[in-house]
Amino acid sequence: MTALGVLALVVGVLLIVIEAHAPTYGALGVVGTVLAGTGAWLLFTSGGVGLEVALPVTLGVAAVGLGAVAVTGRKVLTARREPVRTGAQSLVGSEALVRSWDGEQGQVEMDGGLWRARMAFGYTEIPSAGECVVVEGIRGLTLRVRRREPWELPC
């Protein structure tokens, strides 16, 4: 019974560690917490110590495990709501300075680089050179931009 308790405790802790590094939304963490609690229960009850020690230790292991799962789950849910911060999609919402504009397309400067730009769908007002625009999207190497709204902070 002691070997089974040690095995359950080790596998439970291992599952909690995997939960911290893999996005399983708490599934492995809950199973790991149950296994760790079961392992602690088996270790203390098989050693003849009795319920006076086994119950508080098992409840302590369960509380710490569920607390770790709750913290990890909260971080995962918070990260899912965050906008993309890498790659081309990180440009959306950024400001760019119009260098030149001719008809439906133009050239804008953003972060020290020149980009080809077109007006975003639904926006018809043509920006002038030196005006700040906001990136609404990106398709290939062409930015979809719009003019700044009057209520937005200046560039």
Distance between the termini: 69 Å
Biggest pleated-sheet summary: 5 strands, mixed, barrel
> In total, how many beta strands?
5
In the sheet with the most strands, the strands line up as 1-2-3-5-4
Quickly count the helices: 3
Structural class: alpha+beta
Mean pLDDT: 83
Query: Would you identify the regions where 5 or more consecutive residues have pLDDT less than 50?
Result: none
Helix content: 40-55%
Strand content: 15-25%
What would your notes on this structure say?
With about 160 residues, the chain is an alpha+beta fold. It has helices spanning about 1-20, 25-45, 50-80, and strands at about 95-100, 105-110, 115-120, 130-140, 140-145. The radius of gyration is 28 Å and the shape is rod-shaped. It has a five-stranded mixed barrel. The protein is about 45% helix and about 25% strand. The relative contact order is 0.11. It starts with a helix and ends in an 8-residue tail after the last strand. The longest helix is centred in the middle third of the chain and has 31 residues, at about 50-80. Helix 1 packs antiparallel against helix 2 and helix 2 (about 25-45) packs antiparallel against helix 3 (about 50-80).
Task: Give a brief description.
It is built from three helices and five strands. The chain is an alpha+beta fold and 155 residues long.
Fold blueprint:
Blueprint: H1 2-21, H2 27-46, H3 51-81, E1 95-102, E2 105-110, E3 113-119, E4 132-139, E5 142-147
Parallel strand pairs: 3-5
Antiparallel strand pairs: 1-2, 1-4, 2-3, 4-5
Helix pairs in contact: 1-2, 2-3
